[in-house]
Amino acid sequence: MKKWQIALIGLVLAGIAAAAALYFLVYSKSHPDYERAKPEYVISAEALYFSFADDEVAANSKFTGKVVAIDGQVAEVEQLDDMVVVSFVFDEGLFGREGVRCTMLEGYHTGALNLVHGENVEIKGLCTGFTGSDVILEHCSFL
Predict the structure, then answer these.
(1) 21, 62, 95, 118: most buried by Cβ count inside 10 Å?
(2) What is the pLDDT of residue 1?
(3) 126 strand-pairing partners
């Protein structure tokens, strides 16, 4: 065999090895268990919302990417396709009601759909930031 053929075969084998390593390191990596995660912050839904509304930069550095436990009175519960969103409303903006929106984990859909307006509830989830009108919590569960 010529040297360039050996080099080509070596490059192909190295590419296959790199692809296999990438698959095992990225795709088979375990995902965080947000349901069992301990909250890094415990705060009222209202205080969380106004933290972002008053100083978004400071609130982003403090809460975004962290598991946060909130409590407050439910304003509404929406079912959007295969998602259930519990909302806490604290302000009226140009584009409608503003507050905290919590996307519930699948195992908590029934419990969330049974919530009524004004009911006090404690929820924890991963804070993913502020949309300019709502603070978003994902992978949420009841405490």
Answers:
(1) 62
(2) 67
(3) 67, 138
The two structure tokens encoding residue 37: 């995660």
Amino acid identity of residue 29, one-letter, is K
Instruction: Give just the sign of the alpha carbon dihedral 81, 64, 50, 73.
Output: positive
Contact 99, 91 (CB under 8 A): yes
Measured in residues, the chain has a length of 143
Query: On the CB side of 15, how many CA atoms lie within 13 Å of its CA?
Result: 6
Q: How far is CA 110 from CA 102, 121, 140, in A?
A: 14, 14, 13
Strands (E), the chain: 41-44, 67-73, 76-80, 83-93, 96-104, 120-130, 134-142
pLDDT tens for 48-81 read 999 999 999 999 999 999 999 999 999 999 998 8
- Report the candidate in 47, 100, 49, 46 with the shortest Cα–Cα distance to residue 76: 100
| Contact yes or no for 42/80 (Cβ under 8 A) | no
For Cα atoms 23, 27, 33, give the angle at the middle one, nearest 5 degrees: 155
